[in-house]
Recover the amino acids of this structure.
């Protein structure tokens, strides 16, 4: 099987794709005005002294990442991507432990640089339901992928481009590729959320390298790193992009920009079939 790119998730083939993206999977409690608190029980002990942000990032440009979603999930912050007019792709750990009735408290913003949604052209939506991958393993973050159904379709915003199965290119592990990560994560541990969408460039590593860092790493994951650059709390569920194609979803990591540990992402090419079939029935 080979992969090429496709806008949205109108997939007619039996596609298998997974999103792999890396950061520490503690979610900041978001008060809606830019302040964040952390549930210490969910933080990795290695994270407590680290800066929690898109480390080494710069402000994204207007129109650069219109599909990037800010997810305010009843008081916690995550990222996501608009992959069809009605579907947001994110990380399972962002929604794990939340009930379906909690969706009434969820808010989604897309096409915005400002977390507040004050960017011209920003679009806001509610959520009607979510689906976590049935094989998600919280202890290892394997299969860390989920979908959210929007309350109303968003038809005027560019969709994220996912890999897709076809004969147009050989399968790629993306090892050695340059990738873009992005999010509104906090700028210091327990501190303030970034009010502006930040991005950074990292390098995708071969999984054999990452397995030396993480004993629980699986083929459903993809990792990336660069000196002084990484994702962190509040960036969970956001995208990792190679040549504009989303190949990963921010998942977990030890520390932020820790030189000994890469960020780990859900590998999108492992979940294309699940994304397509689940989206069709939501």
């Amino acid at each position: 099987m080979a992969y090429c790119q496709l806008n949205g998730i109108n997939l007619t083939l039996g596609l298998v794709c997974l999103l792999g993206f890396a950061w520490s999977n503690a979610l900041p409690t978001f008060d809606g005005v830019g302040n964040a608190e952390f549930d210490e029980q969910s933080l990795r002990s290695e994270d407590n002294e680290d800066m929690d942000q898109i480390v080494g990032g710069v402000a994204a440009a207007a129109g650069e990442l219109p599909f990037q979603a800010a997810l305010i999930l009843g008081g916690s912050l995550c990222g996501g991507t608009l992959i069809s007019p009605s579907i947001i792709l994110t990380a399972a750990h962002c929604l794990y432990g939340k009930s379906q009735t909690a969706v009434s408290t969820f808010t989604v913003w897309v096409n915005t640089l400002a977390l507040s949604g004050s960017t011209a052209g920003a679009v806001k939506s509610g959520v009607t339901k979510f689906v976590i991958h049935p094989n998600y393993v919280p202890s290892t973050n394997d299969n860390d992928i989920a979908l959210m159904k929007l309350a109303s379709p968003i038809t005027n915003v560019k969709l994220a481009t996912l890999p897709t199965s076809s004969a147009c290119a050989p399968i790629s592990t993306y090892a050695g590729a340059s990738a873009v990560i992005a999010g509104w994560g906090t700028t210091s541990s327990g501190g303030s959320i970034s009010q502006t969408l930040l991005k950074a460039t990292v390098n995708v590593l071969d999984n054999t390298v990452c397995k030396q860092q993480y004993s629980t790493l699986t083929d459903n994951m993809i990792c990336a790193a660069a000196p002084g650059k990484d994702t962190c709390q509040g960036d969970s569920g956001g995208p990792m992009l190679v040549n504009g194609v989303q190949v990963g979803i921010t998942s977990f990591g030890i520390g932020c920009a820790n030189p000994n540990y890469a960020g780990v992402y859900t590998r999108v090419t492992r979940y294309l079939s699940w994304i397509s079939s689940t989206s069709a029935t939501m």
Remarks:
- The chain has a mean pLDDT of 83.
- The domain at 2-281 is CATH 2.40.10.10 (Thrombin, subunit H).
- The CA atoms of residues 85 and 156 lie 9 Å apart.
- The helical segments are 92-95, 207-213, 272-281.
